Amino acid sequence: MAATQSQHVLRLVLSCRNITAHVTQPGTSYIVAMASSTEQEFLIQYRSKLSQFPRSHLYWDAKVASRVGEKLGFRLKEIGVSNISIDVNEEISIPIHRRRLLTPLFDSLRRVGVEIDGAERLGEIEPS
């Protein structure tokens, strides 16, 4: 937990309609960077899923999660943040069907050059 307090912390808000990822400053809840599936880029895809029949219960997928991670990664690099951490206990509380879709988000952050402390532990905990 000491490492989490000295680094920027990634917080995820997941619902059936969107995914929001924001990074907070160490020791405060001040948001330094944020990306979400509610941004303009995803609007067309979201609207198409609304009119789809049979109606889907999940309006974002691995591709959207990956793009949200990429956008967040670019924004973090822009402000000079290259290392973040996650609260593993908080992420474990996310239902497994949504947690599996987070792997592309973490992978896209790594591709941009942002290291994520704790993400490897999250992968070890997932059931096979």
UniProtKB/TrEMBL annotation:
UniProt keyword annotations, A-Z: Ribonucleoprotein, Ribosomal protein
GO cellular component: ribonucleoprotein complex; ribosome
Gene3D superfamilies: 3.30.420.100
GO molecular function: 5S rRNA binding; structural constituent of ribosome
SUPFAM superfamilies xref list: Translational machinery components
Signal sequence interval, chain numbering: none
GO biological process terms on file: translation
Family per similarity comment: Belongs to the universal ribosomal protein uL18 family.
Name of the featured protein: Uncharacterized protein LOC111307760
Organism: Durio zibethinus
